[in-house]
Amino acid sequence: MTAARTRIKICGLTREQDLDAAVAAGADAVGFVLWEKSPRHVPIARAAELASRLPPFVTPVLLFVNESPQQVLACCERVPGALVQFHGDETPAQCQEATGDGRHAFLRAARIPLDGSPFDLVRFASEHARAQAILLDAHVEGYGGAGKAFDWSRLPANVNAHLVLSGGLTPANVADGIVQVRPRCRTLAVDVSSGVEAAKGIKDPEKINRFVAAVRAADALLAKSTHVQLSAT
Ligand SMILES: O=C(O)c1ccccc1N[C@@H]1O[C@H](COP(=O)(O)O)[C@@H](O)[C@H]1O
C-alpha cells in the first residue's frame, strides 16, 4: 500500500499556541515529553491540560523513556485516548505491562545507528509486533529529540509494519524521507520536534506550516506516480 495519506505528528509541545498551530496546520497527533531529563519535558498535569484543547481526531501522544509501568498507566488515566510512545530501552514485555496488556495502544521507538553499523529492523518489528507502529529515530545520546537524521537508504526494502519516520526531519528534507521510506512499509507517518522549533520546546508556526505543506507535496507526488504506474498496467 503506497498511496495513503502520510500522517503527521508534531512532538515536544509545551505551549497552547504551539498546540493550536499544529492543529490548525493539520497535524494528526501531538506529542508531550514526560521524560524529566528532556528540555521539552512537561509534567503530566500540564500535558493533560494541553491535551484537553485538542479537537476530535487529533491524538495526544505521551512519550516515556524507561518509565515504570505504574507511572505510564497512571499518566494514561489522565489523558483520555492517549497513545503511548516508548522511546527508551523498554522490552516488549515491559511495553505490554505498561499499557495494561493492550488497553492502551503504543508506538515503540527503534534507534537506528548513525555510524552505519547494522540494525535488524525486521527483527525489531517482529519482536515488538504488539506496537501499533515502529517509530524510527537516530541513535543519539539522550535517547531522542536531537534533530539528527539517520541514513534512510539503509532501511530494509520491506518491513511488514506501520512505520513512523522521525529524527532530524525538517520542512526541507521530509518529502525526500517520505519518498524513500513509504515504499518500504505498510503505512508511513512522520514525526518532528527540533525541525519545527524556534528554540527547544518552543515551536515556530511558520516552520510547522512549511513542514505540513512539504508532507502534502510528497503525498501528491507519490499519488501521481502510483496513478501513472496503474494506468500503464
Ligand atoms: O524531544 C525530546 O526531548 C526527546 C527526548 C527523549 C526521547 C525522545 C525525544 N523526542 C523524540 O525524538 C524524535 C526525533 O526528534 P527530532 O525531530 O529529531 O527532534 C521524535 O520522535 C521526538 O518526539
From TrEMBL:
Belongs to the TrpF family. It comes from the Bacteria. InterPro entries: Aldolase_TIM, PRAI_dom, RibuloseP-bd_barrel, TrpF_fam. Keywords: Amino-acid biosynthesis, Aromatic amino acid biosynthesis, Isomerase, Tryptophan biosynthesis. GO terms for biological process: L-tryptophan biosynthetic process. It catalyses: N-(5-phospho-beta-D-ribosyl)anthranilate = 1-(2-carboxyphenylamino)-1-deoxy-D-ribulose 5-phosphate. Its EC number is 5.3.1.24. It comes from Ramlibacter tataouinensis. NCBIfam families: PRK01222.1-4 (NF002298), PRK01222.1-6 (NF002299). This is N-(5'-phosphoribosyl)anthranilate isomerase. Pathway: Amino-acid biosynthesis; L-tryptophan biosynthesis; L-tryptophan from chorismate: step 3/5. Residues 8-213 form the N-(5'phosphoribosyl) anthranilate isomerase (PRAI) domain. GO terms for molecular function: phosphoribosylanthranilate isomerase activity.
